[in-house]
Amino acid sequence: MTLSDVQRQNIHQELQAQLMWRTSQLDDLKAQMEYEGADRQTALADLAATDRIIAEIGQSLQRLADGTYGVCLDCGAQVPFDRLKIRPLARFCMTCQLRNEMR
Ligand SMILES: [Zn+2]
To answer: Among 3.90.1640.10, 1.10.1040.10, 1.10.287.380, 1.20.120.910, what is the CATH number of 5-102?
Structure first.
């Protein structure tokens, strides 16, 4: 079962919201780096993590645009909307996710 247009729009909005939030978080982190006595090690790690998430959101938006979004990268099954709604960056179905985690 593929996603309906409304569901795709829903995910799109969610991804856009996350992208905006993460982008402002990135700006905050960059600003923190400017402070005297800032914990640069932690800030740098946070920056890298935030950067990675922003890249993942971008990939999800790209996949949403080209119609491959929501398809499990492992087995090719459609990931249920209920799962994507909670975790829009999920790239695997529940079964494959659990199997990957157990490896
Ligand atoms: Zn799968």
So the answer is: 1.20.120.910
The pLDDT value given to residue 38: 78
Distance 85 CA to ligand 1 centre (A): 17
Residues with CB under 5 A from ligand 1 (ion): 72, 74-75, 77, 93, 96
Give the pLDDT mean for 47-66: 96
Q: Is 78 helix (H, G, I), strand (E, B) or coil?
A: strand
- The Å distance, Cα 47 to ligand 1 centre, comes to 30
